[in-house]
Amino acid sequence: MRKSAAIIKPGERYLILLKPYSSIASLPPIPSSLDSEPADLSAQLLSILSRPNWQKHPSLIKLLPYLTPSHVSSLFAFNLDPQTALNFFNWIAHRPGFKHNVHSYSSMLNVLILARSLRLAEKIRISMINACRSIEDVLFVLQVFREMNAADGQLKFEPTLRCYNTILMILSKFLLIDEMKSVYLELLNNNISPNIYTFNAMVNGYCKIGNVNEAELYVSKIVQAGLHPDTFTYTSLILGHCRNKDVGNAYKVFLIMPQKGCQRNEVSYTNLIHGLCEAGRINEALKLFIDMTQDNCCPTVRTFTVLIHALCGSGRKVEALNLFNEMKEKGCEPNVHTYTVLIDCLCKENKMDEARKMLSEMLEKGLIPTVVTYNALIDGCCKEEMIDDAFEILDLMESNNCGPNTRTYNELICGLCKKRKVHKAMALLNKMLERKLSPSLITYNSLIHGQCKVNDLESAYRLLSLMNENGLVPDEWTYSVFIDTLCKEGRVEEAGTLFDSIKAKGVKANEVIYTALINGYCKVGKIDVGHSLLERMLNDACSPNSCTYNVLIEGLCKKKKMKEASSLVAKMLTMGVKPTVVTYTILVGEMLKDGAFDHALEVFNHMVSIGCQPDVCTYTALLHAYFSQGMFEEVDYVIAKMNEESILPDLVTYAVLIGGYARLGLTHRAFDFLKCMVDARYTPSLCTLSILIKNLSHENQMKETRSKIGSDSVDIANVWKTLEYENVLKLFEKMVQHGCTIDISIYGALIAGFCQAGRLEEARGLVHHMKERGMSPSEDIYNSLLDCCCKLGVYTEGVRLVDAMVESGLLPLLESYKLLVCGLFIEGSNEKAKAVFCGLLSCGYNYDEVAWKVLIDGLLKRDLVDKCSELLDIMEEKGCQPNLLTYSMLVEGLERTENN
Predict the structure, then answer these.
(1) Residues 127, 627: Cα–Cα separation, whole Å
(2) Fewer beta carbons below 10 Å: N end or C end of the chain?
(3) Of 363 and 14, more confident
(4) For 437-481, what is the HEC assignment?
(5) Residue 700, Cβ neighbours under 10 Å: how many?
(6) Rounded to whole angstroms, how far apart are CA atoms 581 and 615?
(7) Is the pTM of this model over 0.85?
(8) CA pseudo-torsion sign 399, 400, 405, 410
């Protein structure tokens, strides 16, 4: 049996050689039922279409779900009767879920041209041009268009003026301006006289890219041809001027339209409204919006959306929502873009519940969210540290056949790194590559920041090498992360050396890099170096911001150089940098520590008098100072003032309040604020819980010595080493009495406390306690237990925990895997170690990170060279090859270890 011709693909010629079938009998049989896509579907389709009343054939209905435009193209490669081909082409076009593309139109067009049904062919040709959905489609259609014009004999089909005008408009739509100019010249070479639609297409194309001068040349051609510019012409010119950010000339064109006898339309108004909004003249745009109705123009969905977008962007969300409601009241249905704008605005304001409701509303209306819509929601969830919700959105978008893009993954990676889930962020790098998405500079910068956040600077440097290997050039943000991390680790001289090297790499240090380095030197007491860096910064034409000055001011304060700190505040003002609430809070905080309460209040009152409102950090500094001095009335005053100013406590504020009252023996007040903290969705830190437990165990003693204030510091490690398990249960009782919810995060913090102290039995007891109350251990709890097992050398228990985690869909930290695999090898449990490693490889970790952390940082650093080679062989056998750069790191590590 002769096979059908290949499906047409972009870039191939539009002509299909028709191949006759020897007989219908040679066609494959039609199956009675279909569970999967049938083989040789086009041939089966031909068999059905050869029968009378094919529309009613039961097998056609069964084939229908599998039919695509590609199958239609293949079908028309057979010697099918032209009328049957056209009837089928029109019939399937009306089937739900089916839509012709440029390739199926091209195939149908070829059949009609060979049959010389040129009137019908012209309709199909116009439909084919209008079916373009991408630049690739347009270029394919343009090739077909030109080949039809250049062909000989029966295959020749010259384009009409209408055809030329349609293709000019589609080229304008996709901003293929050079091709548009070429087609215009081809039209002239074919001795076809342009009409107003031709000229308007050219004017519109040039105006879309802001080339008004070229557009005006075609306006002059309109006049030369004895024609008159119309509404479309002037509307395009308004667009062109607005694209050039020249709203003044756009307004002039808008005003002369009535004088030229041209009625303004909705697009004329919308283009100018958009231009005004882009120029920040939103109130003028709103006035023009009101004027529309007086000019007999009804706002379109785009008019409303442009204004809603502008209002959202300028922080006028309430007005945007009012306009959205007005839009619906007037019967103008919002589209996907309208909803996306509002969803993005709500997400940026952390109104995630409202954003989800908006998504539900658009889905109920049958609107299909785009990747931009989903990305706005994912970004909002990640910024609010709602990672599970972000992945729910990802699942939803994939279930709705909307594929994530690089930005989607960047947002998820950033969110995971923020939560210190770097192993999961690295796993997403794998997912990106599987989807043929190229990681961007933002991807690597986020991952580098994540590795630095978990104190793995070595892996961060490895990522930098991978980044260079993939042709991406590190920027100032990349180096700012490294310099900041080195400084935080006290490796200031290394940070300084890196800083000096980046200029040679073509990177100009920005204010973030300078500020990080200045902060590093100030933290180690080298204020003079910080000052010299500030001078160097100014000489390099890099303007210091308030953060830069603040780190120097803080450094001076810690050195008790308050006079110099105050002088630097004055210098800020002379340099045009306004002191912020952070600046004043640093000064107030240091004065309070020194007991200079009167002076601190003077500075506090000064900042209020100049309109710099104290924030939660300022009030927290006051609370901390007043607690340390036992100034109860002042504490109450500050709390009342915060309520009055609607300033909500943050995690640190709650810790200060709880710790302060607990140390005073006022456990009732401490637990009241613990309830507030939990209700506000803050998780008490291990330190806060340690203070509460410590004070509960000495409650009677504290009541007797309320006037004596204990030390602010709590030796957490010592608390958990000596803590009696019963005191944890006592904590739970107190929490319940005060209406506190004991959720999994509370259990997680307490279990972490016991695990850090190596008290595995007590940690297990708490796990049992939470399970009795219907809660399952979280990933963090499992990782605490696993880390504890490995450090105690209880590796069999560690293996059991890993199995339980994987079974529950949770990922152990690679650091824990490293300790477990190395520990098993060291104790001689080689097969167990290999089994654990094999299980690790099936969990979706990034293979480079596995090699870095388990093989290089684990086995090689413990001189387990042979074991490292064995596990690398396992990786290769399972097709889990790391990057070539990682291979070279492994080879170097193996050679170095063997030589040593």
Answers:
(1) 78
(2) C
(3) 363
(4) CCCCHHHHHHHHHHHHHCCCHHHHHHHHHHHHHCCCCCCHHHHHH
(5) 8
(6) 7
(7) no
(8) negative
